[in-house]
Structures are given as C-alpha cells and as structure tokens.
Design a protein that fits this description.
Blueprint (H helix, E strand, L loop, with lengths): L2 H13 L4 E2 L24 H4 L9 E9 L15 E10 L4 H15 L7 E6 L11 H13 L5 E6 L1 H7 L5 E6 L1 H4 E2 L13 E11 L21 E14 L5 E14 H8 L9 H14 L7 H22 L8 H19 L11 H8 L5 H4 L1 H29 L6 H9 L5 H11 L5 H22 L9 H21 L5 E6 L4 E6 L6 H16 L3 E8 H6 L13 E8 L5 E6 L15 E10 L2 E8 L1
Parallel strand pairs: 1-2, 4-6, 5-6
Antiparallel strand pairs: 2-3, 3-10, 4-8, 7-8, 8-9, 9-10, 11-12, 12-17, 13-14, 14-15, 16-17
Helix pairs in contact: 3-4, 8-9, 8-11, 9-10, 9-13, 10-13, 14-16, 17-18
C-alpha cells in the first residue's frame, strides 16, 4: 500500500464511524509560544481535550504534519524520522476504551491487512504512589479482541524497559504492562514531570513484529519496547482522563477523552512488511533520486545507507517547514531548518553527490504530497530558492571554517576549540572529526560534549524565560493580550489595507509579538493610529461574541482569518462589537478571550516595529 492509500483508508474508516475530518494544523503552532513545532496531533486540540466545545463535534479524525527536533540525532537508522504524519482520531468525552481498541485493531487487520499474529500490545501497569491503578480494563478488552482471532493472549507485568531486557518474552505472551515511562502520555512526559494543570493519561500501544533476529547489543532479551528493530510501534491510544493538581496529585478530567496517534509512515511500513521506513513510497522516491545523483546504491553498506536516510529525512522536513513559511536562520524554528539542510549537505558530500544539487530534489517531494498538501506546489519556487541559497551559504561557511581549523590542526583539537569551530564558525563537528582523522590527531569529544551541554542549558534557560506564561496557559494576562492582538490586526488592516494578514504570533503574560504581511517598514505616525484604534476599542467596552458558521460563509462575509486551510468546515468567529453596533474586530480563532474589552487593563503601546522576513513585518506591543 502507498502512503496516500493508507492515509485515505484511515480517514474514511473513521469518517464512516461518525468522525469529522479536520485539516492538519501548520508545523509552527499558531498562538502557542510554549513550543517551536507541532510535534503531535493533540497539540492543536488541547483546549478541546480540556472541555472547550469543538465546532466539528465530539468525534474527530485527521492526519497531522509533525516535526520532532529531538529526533534529529536519531535519524540514520531504519525507523526514525524528524518529519512525519500522525494519523489521529479523538473522542472528546464521547466513546472510550471499549470502542477505540477494537476499532484500531479492525483498521489494522481488516482494512490494512496486517496479520493479527504479528501484533503485540502494551498497557499501563499503574502507579501506587499517585493512586492510579493498573489498566485492567484495556487488558480484558485486548484479550477479547485476540480471542476473536483465535489467539489466547497472555498478559504479563514487565515493569521497566530494563526489566524487559532482563526477562524477555515467553510463549503466548502478547499483552505487556509497562511503567509510566513507557505507557503514560502527556506533553511533559511521565506523571512526575507534568506541571499543574497539564492533562495526561495511561495509554495502550500496538507493535508490529517484523520477525527479525534480536540484536543483543541492545539487551540480553527482546521485548516489544526493544530498540533492536524487530518490533515497531505503529499506534498509541491515549486515554486522557486525568489532570495534575497543584499538590502533585491527580484528579479526573470533566470528560474522558481518547487521543489516538499513529505514525503514518510506520503503518505503511507494516502494511508492506518492510522494517525500513525509508523503503515506503513517500521516502523511497527521494532515495532513488539520491541514487541517481550520487551513483551509489541504497542498502549496499550501512554507513552509506545512513547517509541516504539523513539526506532524505532532513530534506523532506526542510521542504515542509519552508512550505509553512519557516526559512533558514540562526534562531527559533529557522535554526532547525538550517540545521537540517546543513546536515543533509554534509551527507550528500559523503555520498559524492554533485555540489549545489540538493534543491533539485524538491519536485519529487512535492509530487508525493501535493494532493494532501497543495500549499507545497504553490510554494515550490520559494522552497527551491531557499534550499539552493542555504547550500551555497553553507559551502562558503565551510571554506571559512577550514581556515580556522588549519590554525588549530598542528596538535590535538581540544573540546573548547571544537566547540568554537562549531558555534562561532559554523564548522560541523563531523567535519572536524573527519579532518582530524586524516591528519592523525584526536578531538576531545568529551570536552566538546561538555561545552555543548553547558551551551544548551543556557539556551534552554533562555527559552524557558522567553516562553514563560504562553497563551497555552490560558491565564488572565495572556488572555488580555490575545484579545488585544485581535484588535491590533484590525487596526493594522484599517490603516495599511486589507492585504494585511497575520503571519504568526507569540503571546506571553508580558507582551504580544505579532507578525503580519506587509512589504515595507510602517512609519511611526501609522503605528500611533493603530495604537489609538486598540485603545479606543478598549474604552468602547466592546463585547466578545462567538458564533459558529460554515467556513465558506465566513469567507463570504469578510471574516478575517489566516491559515484558512487549518480550520474545519465549521468555524468559530470571534466578534468584538460595542453597544453602538460598531464592530472593532471579527476574526477566526479558537483560544481564550476576554468577554468584554473593559477587562483589558492598561494602555496599549507598540514598542517596536521591524522586519521579520521577506514581505513580513513584526511588531511588539505591551499593556502599560
């Protein structure tokens, strides 16, 4: 089966079970400064998991574009990717375990055609300290499901991942209970790491057995959560029914939710019984193009195969991010686009591809995905231009870095020097190691890693301060800024024209940062008028009303909206209207707002206006 066939089959399967299909949200979360990327299907749906009504109902299904920056170093094996699609279905207080688990099993075995004998499942073993019991209900459901297939499934407590390697699996065992580290899901990880107010819950994962031999380098015995490659997780049903309290304990959410996520690429690999996800159509098309450009053959040796995978994965991820408006830079999301492309260039050189040809791979990615994501075709020229320019820029950086390396290459390279070469001169550690080996000198990698850890700790601390109190917390001050930002956009459109649209926002308890489409610098006189517009709206005591309507009707009525493609067919329109009938703002949204502008305290002040990227301006504003 192809990627498109599996995606379509999944969406149709759940639509037949009264689920409304919703579009994928952008890779860069809108109005969520707590994270750089959308890394799971539940991120855009968090308010609805906490109880807010979704305009499309209580049963939802989608395929969500996702990017996980933490997996960059993992790419190179046969199953990790940074960019992926997450198939998702949700129950917002509707059905629960007894429907979800049989449905997913039916999809896998009847629709995709997987052999039930090759499926193994895991559940949550419970946590006595937190008062959360073992998921016996899921165990009984799974036993019944397997029994219907003629399989007597034995359930066993494994405990930790280390326990799994020590104990292994025994005949007939098919249901494995693990601790929270493996079978509890929240955005923050295990229950102990969750902050107060964060939702989470036990989960049940399904693994596909490729039947490959166990590699004891990973542990003495194999088990479903083993990393040797025999088993691959293909779906995770999260039963999101708890929320963490300020005292560290847990209580039940007002509604029981199902939050399912299944890696599309992994399900396609299982459907074709190939343990290498880079052999499925959506990735192998890129691989074959790399073969043509390099003269190498994928799979002939592991070192070159790892290089193929890195180029294919990183390139695809960069294409999608640039398609969503992220361009290479040294900060925030742009840093990761730059890192992906530069790592891909290093590996294309390993494969002896012709320099300055990376951008020629763009059409094959667009061909694979344009039916589902038409914005890629529309952005083709922009994507190619950014990739071509970034490769050229990086090759010049490497030339300069070589000169710096030569200054240090008479003797062994210290960890500090390797760190400076990387961070100051953009010289990749892989190149430092390669050149050092050629000269017979060593690199202090322990010292390099120590310097990098200190650097990353400082970066994390800065990011935590920068993103502290983001819109996702729904706090009072953040909510004020969110409503004020709607008024800011309305004011900008009033004085700059209706071609102005939102291009991104970052809202904290201390300020709003707002990006908008406009080709040139905005003069101070106009900014003063926009400020006055916002402050007049605050004084007018405009009331916020929320109404649901078909998306096409909202467009026809001139409702302002960015990223229209991310909204479902029925949308929420937020209108600020005063007692005299004056409409101050009318916009699509889905987050927390004041009920009346008289709740916004302080005077709105635009403190900075600057360029964000080509054709996009940025303003920072505060409530003083």
């Amino acid at each position: 089966m192809t990627t498109a066939e599996v995606r379509h089959t999944y969406l149709e399967f759940f639509k037949a079970r009264e689920h409304s299909e919703i579009p994928s949200a952008p890779l860069v979360p809108e109005n969520d400064p707590t994270t750089l990327f959308t890394s799971s299907g539940m991120q855009p749906l968090l308010p609805y998991l906490l109880g807010e009504k979704h305009p499309s109902g209580v049963r939802l299904v989608d395929s969500q574009k996702s990017f996980r920056a933490e997996d960059i170093e993992e790419v190179g094996d046969n199953r990790h990717t940074t960019f992926f699609e997450m198939l998702g279905n949700w129950s917002l207080g509707d059905y629960f375990k007894s429907e979800q688990l049989p449905w997913f099993f039916e999809f896998l075995t009847k629709e995709i055609g997987l052999d039930p004998q090759k499926l193994y499942v895991t559940v949550f073993s419970g946590d006595e300290k937190l008062g959360i019991t073992k998921d016996e209900e899921s165990i009984e459901i799974w036993k019944r499901i397997f029994k219907e297939e003629g399989i007597d499934a034995i359930a066993v407590d494994i405990g930790t991942e280390a326990d799994g390697y020590a104990r292994g699996m025994r005949e007939g065992e098919r249901i494995f209970a693990y601790e929270a580290k493996k079978n509890w899901w929240s955005r923050s990880g295990t229950p102990e790491k969750m902050p107060a107010g964060e939702p989470g819950g036990p989960d049940s994962e399904v693994f596909y057995d490729f039947g490959t031999a166990h590699d004891t380098a990973f542990g003495e015995h194999c088990h479903p959560n083993c990393d040797c490659g025999r088993f691959m997780e293909i779906g995770n049903s999260v039963f999101m029914e708890y929320i963490k309290k300020s005292d560290g304990s847990f209580e039940k959410l007002p509604q029981q939710n199902v939050d399912f996520g299944g890696g599309l690429e992994r399900i396609v690999a299982a459907a074709n019984d190939v343990s290498d996800v880079f052999c499925i159509d959506s990735l192998y098309g890129i691989i074959t193009e790399i073969e043509s450009l390099s003269g190498k053959v994928y799979g002939e040796n592991e070192e070159e195969s790892a290089a193929f995978r890195i180029v294919a994965d990183h390139f695809r991820g960069a294409v999608f991010m640039i398609g969503d408006g992220v361009v290479p830079s040294n900060t925030e999301q742009g840093y990761f686009v730059r890192r992906l492309l530069r790592r891909a260039v290093l590996k294309m050189d390993t494969l002896e591809m012709e320099p300055h040809t990376l951008h020629t791979l763009v059409p094959i990615v667009i061909q694979q995905y344009e039916a589902q994501y038409p914005n890629l075709r529309a952005q083709k020229d922009v994507i190619q231009k950014n990739i071509e320019e970034e490769e050229a820029r990086f090759r010049k950086t490497v030339e300069r870095g070589l000169k710096e390396f030569e200054k240090r290459s008479g003797e062994n390279i210290s960890g500090r020097d390797a760190f400076v070469l990387f961070t100051t001169h953009g010289f990749p550690i892989e190149l430092t190691l390669e050149l050092a080996a050629e000269r017979g000198i060593t690199v202090d990698m322990e010292g390099f890693r120590s310097e990098m850890e200190k650097h990353q700790a400082l970066s994390r601390a800065g990011a935590e301060q920068k993103f502290k109190g983001g819109l996702a917390d729904g706090g009072e001050k953040t909510t004020m800024y969110h409503s004020a930002t709607h008024l800011l956009l309305a004011g900008l459109r009033k004085y700059l024209g209706e071609d102005v649209h939102q291009a991104g926002s970052n809202i904290t308890t201390e300020r709003t940062r707002f990006d908008f489409t406009y080709p040139e610098k905005v003069d101070r006189e106009t900014l003063d008028k926009v400020e006055q517009y916002v402050n007049d709206a605050i004084k007018a005591q405009a009331e916020m009303t929320i109404e649901e309507m078909p998306k096409e009707q909202a467009k026809a009525e001139g409702v302002e909206g960015s990223f229209w493609e991310k909204y479902p067919e029925v949308v929420k329109v937020y209108t600020l209207r005063d007692a005299n009938g004056v409409v101050w703002s009318r916009e699509l949204c889905g987050g927390p707002h004041v009920s009346n502008t008289n709740e916004i305290t302080g005077v709105f002040k635009i403190v900075k206006e600057e360029s964000s990227s080509a054709g996009v301006r940025r303003v920072k504003a505060v409530l003083e």
